[in-house]
Amino acid sequence: MSKKSLAILMRARMRPNDPTKFPHISQFPKEIPSNPQENRSRDRILLKSTQETGNSSDFSSSRRVYDVVCETMHSAISASKTGVLDITLNDFQEGYFSLSLEDREKLLLVLAKEYDVNREQVRELVKQYLGLENPASDDKEALASVFYRIERNLRHALKPTYEVLFERLNTHPGGLRFLCILRADLLSILTKENTPSLRTLDSYLKEKLGMWLSPATLELHQITWDDPASLLEKIVAYEAVHPISNLLDLKRRLGIGRRCFGYFHPSIPGEPLIFIEVALMETVAQTIQEVLWDNPPIPENQATCALFYSISSTQPGLAGINLGKFLIKRVITLVKKDMPHVSTFATLSPIPGFMQWLISKLSSQSRFAEDERGTQSNSPSSTFSEKILLPEEEQALMGLSDESSSSSNGMEVLLNLLSVKNCEWATSPRILPVLEPILMRLCARYLLQEKKRGKALDSVANFHLQNGAMVERINWTADRSEKGIHQSGGIMVNYVYRLENIEDYAQSYFESGKIHASPGIHSRL
Amino acid sequence: MSKKSLAILMRARMRPNDPTKFPHISQFPKEIPSNPQENRSRDRILLKSTQETGNSSDFSSSRRVYDVVCETMHSAISASKTGVLDITLNDFQEGYFSLSLEDREKLLLVLAKEYDVNREQVRELVKQYLGLENPASDDKEALASVFYRIERNLRHALKPTYEVLFERLNTHPGGLRFLCILRADLLSILTKENTPSLRTLDSYLKEKLGMWLSPATLELHQITWDDPASLLEKIVAYEAVHPISNLLDLKRRLGIGRRCFGYFHPSIPGEPLIFIEVALMETVAQTIQEVLWDNPPIPENQATCALFYSISSTQPGLAGINLGKFLIKRVITLVKKDMPHVSTFATLSPIPGFMQWLISKLSSQSRFAEDERGTQSNSPSSTFSEKILLPEEEQALMGLSDESSSSSNGMEVLLNLLSVKNCEWATSPRILPVLEPILMRLCARYLLQEKKRGKALDSVANFHLQNGAMVERINWTADRSEKGIHQSGGIMVNYVYRLENIEDYAQSYFESGKIHASPGIHSRL
């Protein structure tokens, strides 16, 4: 066995990430392995008996399972015995997985509300703190001591009680991973019901996870064909940008002219938290096809460009924690050191929000236009209306709509074309050349000018811009996959990282939302 | 190159730990490598010019270096540009190493006092919090929101400003290691001058380090002869219990019948934070000689006992952070899994404080005895006096002192014998048999009954007891090295970890200071 596999085996036991993907663990196992010498807690026995009473779809039974899990949670927080605690934490994790999302929500609400900050204690300390305003003593160091003491106590009192559960799970084998799943649940619950207590629970957990998964604790590892199959399998499962079709495809992505790097955490072994795929190219690639299908693109020593063509994070529960930033910076440093002849670091990125934005823009503007035609006046809606298309684009589109007389303007023609389910336009030699300049111009506008809270509306754009990249070029028919056409009309974008500008660009984007872009893309606007 | 060495190379660059051991870095390097494209900060230029002005022993020059380092520290805390920050943090680290311990103390005082909690802000928030006592609104969730918000703000306001420096260093390459050194300095300063502000700085840093080095972030790795020499060299350098005499000795400790495990952190690569040496034995060893010199002790498949004969931590700056506890627990699990025939987990441990305690006890009691002889009355001192020796021991010792008439009682005889510099008693066939029962009895008393704040007085005893071990047996002439005789009269102790009792024992020791011990050792009292 290789040293590395051994090292991986030597780490803490792991638990599969997504219980829905591993249905066998979303129920209690028939026999929970445990040390026979350890006393089984009452909860444990309760759990087992609950299981044995019959079908978990039975309401009173699932009610009972919920109660037991809730009680286990209580023990996990209040227990002082570290030994029993290990069993309790295992029970809690197993129990949690057996709950429906509805019951999980109930449980998390209990956690958020009943294990909150101890407000009595905070109030008491806060009063003491204010009492220090008129110090009786002139001794400065002595006074400082009192401040230090109360501040420390106040700091501890302000920690919600549920922090204990998070802390204990963090140091428990498999616990960090469990917390990622718990937060993923929390996020999905919050999309439906945004209660302040759950929001606070989430932001507290997010802060903790961000701390525990700080770059100082992450290890960069180059993933190769020599890695264990169990790891490679995860790469296939989690590749979110350009799905891996088969083993050959995977082997190609790990072979000559390519690199794959992952960030690993000691507590979540055998699985990267985030990974990035790199192709070594002669020039910045314009289409994903030339990246994915050429084998290898060019001899490695002729490469001048490292192209990041895919970044996938594996844990939905780590949303909002930017792991990729440090990953990209470290990979750039590493590749640069390894291959000094590589001078350009670029991406070939999807534009996941472009079509959605364009279609919704077109439909709202069509509605405004219709309203205006109806009222023949300056109705209030007109303040929101805008000219999306240039006069020549309007004309070209109307030229396409000869036969279908129902469309009264270019926006409607475009909307109709783009809304057809199987995206016929993308394969039509008549329509394609007409749409190209229009979609490319609108895409440049979408990337450079459409913002939300001062940041790029497109999530991938926002990711790279906050990391210090600039928008270099957009590429027509760069991704002809169904997904590519559907998301962005097949357009892809190259972001470029220039070492000398990364920090300045990140900073100005952070401070003022400034998006740096090449003259070429500016000229499209 | 092996995969592991590659993995180590791939990690962040490291900085030697103890600047006194690596004098070449305790001064600024002539040329600090940096990216020429990055702007050099004013501080950097200042630093360099300071260096070039001449001898650092010159007072005004070292004054100036101090000022620059202090200013760099300020930039490192207040800078918002992450790019410049990397350079600033490097400069701060380099600069800090160039300071004398005296200047470091001054700098740390500035850090503790001028970058403390923002009390104005805390007071403001505290007042707002108290203002919430009479809620105007009956809406519970809305009220909760306000509480959550102020509590979060208060939590952030209560963080001292110096936390920023700690956090930034933690995510900076080499920074975690630097923080360990900084805390080691802090601890050594505190032994001389225990000011509340420095104590608070230390306890805050300790808490942070404990969090960043939580077991979840540590990786257990078996250290073998196949590991890089740079790692093995560290093992030799840091082995604190039984010094490694030469390469052959090291090879034996990593060879058949032995194991060595270390805890590693991704940010401090190539060096364990703590490591443990294990010998596989047929029975629990009574002397360190049989552990260290037999080669190998027995065939591995005949082993029934895993003997932990040495645990060394490498970072003085991590004092008070119990890394060994989790290490022992994980090593036991690992060995058990690997070799099910091993059923006993024991230590052969030094008793570092025994002789020191005994000699100080004997001298204070001799003084009391003398006082009593002088006053011939119940002087106040007599309330502290106690019979250390049993009548038969008194007699046996007086029997030894025939020739030296100066000693008026057994305690004095014993004190004189033990105080002789070269420990003649330990090689004298006449004295040794007399001392054996006396020292063994007193040693059992020292281990089981002498406490400080309710915990075992002996630091190694306290370590194993808090981990859940019991005191099994003490062994006469178990360590005949000079150090062994000097520390504990050559006595060593076996602590035993029984899997089924570890948690209970740890808990009762934690709660009430109860020390579990075998009947054999109890009978010696």
Automatic annotation (TrEMBL), chains A, B:
Location of the region described as Disordered in the Swiss-Prot/TrEMBL record: 16-40
Protein name in UniProt: Malonyl-CoA decarboxylase
Domain Malonyl-CoA decarboxylase N-terminal as annotated: residue spans: 115-212
Organism: Cardamine amara subsp. amara
InterPro entries for the chain: Malonyl_CoA_deC, Malonyl_CoA_deC_C, Malonyl_CoA_deC_C_sf, MCD_N, MCD_N_sf
Pfam family, one: MCD
PANTHER family, per database record: MALONYL-COA DECARBOXYLASE, MITOCHONDRIAL, PTHR28641
Domain Malonyl-CoA decarboxylase C-terminal: 217-497
Transmembrane spans: none
